[in-house]
Amino acid sequence: xxPTMNNSCTSDGLIRLETALAxxxxxxxxxxETEQVSxxxxxxxxxxxxVVSPINVPGHDNSAMDGYALALADLQQNDTLPLAGxxxxxxxxxxxxxxxxxxxxxxxxxxxxxxDTVIMQEQTEITGQGIRFVQHPxxxxxxxxxxxxxxxxxxxxxxxxxxxxxxDIGLLASVGVATVTVYRRLKVAVFSTGDELKLPxxxxxxxxxxxxxxxxxxxxxxxxxxxxxxxxxIPDDKEALRQAFLSADQQADALISxxxxxxxxxxxxxxxxxxxxxxxxxxxxxxxxKPFAFGRLPNSAFFGLPGxxxxxxxxxxxxxxxxxRHMMNLPAKAPVELMLTTQTRLKKRPGRRDFQRGKxxxxxxxxxxVQAVTHQGSGVLSSMSRADCYIVLAEEDGxxxxxxxxxxxxxxxxxx
Length: 416
What we know:
By secondary structure, the protein is α+β, with helices and mostly antiparallel strands. Helices cover 19% and strands 29% of the residues. The protein is built from seven helices and 27 strands. The strands form eight sheets. A six-stranded mixed sheet has the order 17-14-18-22-21-19, sandwiched between helices. α4 crosses α5 (269-276). The longest helix has 19 residues, at 309-327.
């Protein structure tokens, strides 16, 4: 059941973005099933449990640079020490360091026992009696990286509910972890509805349009690392639409469609959803993206996006994507926001939060600023392609003049 929260609406009954997100989080189910995958297959998977290091990193005291290892106390009697051998990475000095001697050592090589200092080669001279140290520290420990200094054995390397990125794979490899326990991939079904929709490459008849929303949504879902079930285009036929909803509900954790959520839409979406589950049609206090539907089918969550391409993109990024991250067991991720000067006048009527498409620019003095891209209509998808940020104007804001400070939300990885 999707709750109502009228006290979190605007004066004209529109639902605020934060309220809509809270409803989504309260009414979606997180994935609980887990599986083990190899390190090579773990990219973009979500850890189901913390990873603890089985070893110290580094595994032994080692040199931070090329130079000479010695016991610093030996230099109190003589600034020249005979050379007893060498220690290379992978080929340590295996004997015990004789008193009053030093060894040649390379970066990453094991520090021999007794030695407590490494002196860089630039502070030495080679003589007939051995290595003369023209400079040396006052205290031992210089230029030595201690065992476990980076990662101690038994310490947490990565926390649970963490999405594995490329550098994490390198980190896990560095501690010898070959497999990890992750949540199974979230399954998301996507389809488009409408007899007027054609695939790119197909000829257009009078009144036809190309299906762009499904391509944008699938691309963003791909970046999220979910399993996409693309059900294609569904004609404006009640039984075909019902079968699409039933098929999606059987296969997926979530279903996303675009169009058919506005008042007066001539289709069967609301009628079928009322038969199969519990769904609410919302009017959001955001622009673009006022119409939005959310609810539950027997086995899955349903997200109904507006039909206009910019509205569909914005509502997916601002609402559906955070809810899907929650279903994937990922923590909420705050957007990167800045306060910047706008170079352009911004038209705005109070009432809804406006996500105007913007472009970061530099002023003549090198200051980072923002300007609105032209053509801000909810059907103008080219505005998203030309932009790299949103200019976010609050519900109560009116017009902004050039030179005023405005809030700018950088596009996240879904739109980069």
